[in-house]
């Protein structure tokens, strides 16, 4: 009899553990993480403003299991940012800016907020967290990871 009670207790305990485990499943559909790459022909960093010129396209990489890649216009990137602006602007995300200037290649980690776009450029409020950023530079690539609220689609 004691053996049956012990077996039933173990089975009951196991079922309780399984029931609790199902409540802690992470829903990745609400936590979409992307790597964005914004390239520019030239750029400037002055008075806390980072501008990348010649940057009409933003490439994105879905960091989820699907690992999809796409692209859209810089205006679409700014619209996407504005949907979650309270999150991004209250806790500015940081990324790595790789630049090429007259001294050669360089990298800086920068926190960005409040992007504004024109047809061929994007400007962020920016703060250098690590490294040095020249006042003007030639070719550049900005790598930025963001959580977004909606799955992104490439533009044709």
Main β-sheet, in a few words?
A: 10 strands, antiparallel
Q: In sequence order, what are the helices and strands, one letter per element?
A: HEEEEEHHEEEEE
Number of domains: 1
Distance between the termini: 71 Å
* Strand proportion: over 45%
* Rg estimate, integer Å: 23 Å
Trace the largest sheet across and list its strands: 5-4-1-10-6-7-8-3-2-9
Mean pLDDT: 81
Tell the overall outline. globular
List the total number of helices: 3
Q: Unreliable runs, pLDDT <50, ≥5 residues?
A: 2-28
* Estimated helix fraction: 10-25%
Number of strands: 10
Q: Which structural class is indicated by helix and strand composition?
A: alpha+beta
Protein model, in words:
By secondary structure, this protein is α+β, with helices and mostly antiparallel strands. It has one domain. Helix content is 24%, strand content 47%. The chain contains 3 helices and 10 strands. It has a 10-stranded antiparallel beta sheet with strand order 5-4-1-10-6-7-8-3-2-9. Strand 2 (42-46) and strand 3 (49-53) form a beta hairpin. The protein is globular.
């Amino acid at each position: 009899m004691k053996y049956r009670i012990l077996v039933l207790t173990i089975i009951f305990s196991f079922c309780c553990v399984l029931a609790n485990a199902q409540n802690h499943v992470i829903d990745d559909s609400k936590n979409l993480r992307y790597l964005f790459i914004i390239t520019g022909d030239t750029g400037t960093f002055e008075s806390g403003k980072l501008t990348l010129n010649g940057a009409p396209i933003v490439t994105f990489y879905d960091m989820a299991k699907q690992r999809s890649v796409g692209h859209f216009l810089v205006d679409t990137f700014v619209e996407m940012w504005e949907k979650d602006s309270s999150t991004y602007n209250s806790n500015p995300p940081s990324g790595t800016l790789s630049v090429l200037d007259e001294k050669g290649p360089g990298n800086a980690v920068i926190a960005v907020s409040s992007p504004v776009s024109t047809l061929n450029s994007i400007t962020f409020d920016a703060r250098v967290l690590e490294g040095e950023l020249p006042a003007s530079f030639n070719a550049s690539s900005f790598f930025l990871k963001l959580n977004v609220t909606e799955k992104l689609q490439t533009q044709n």
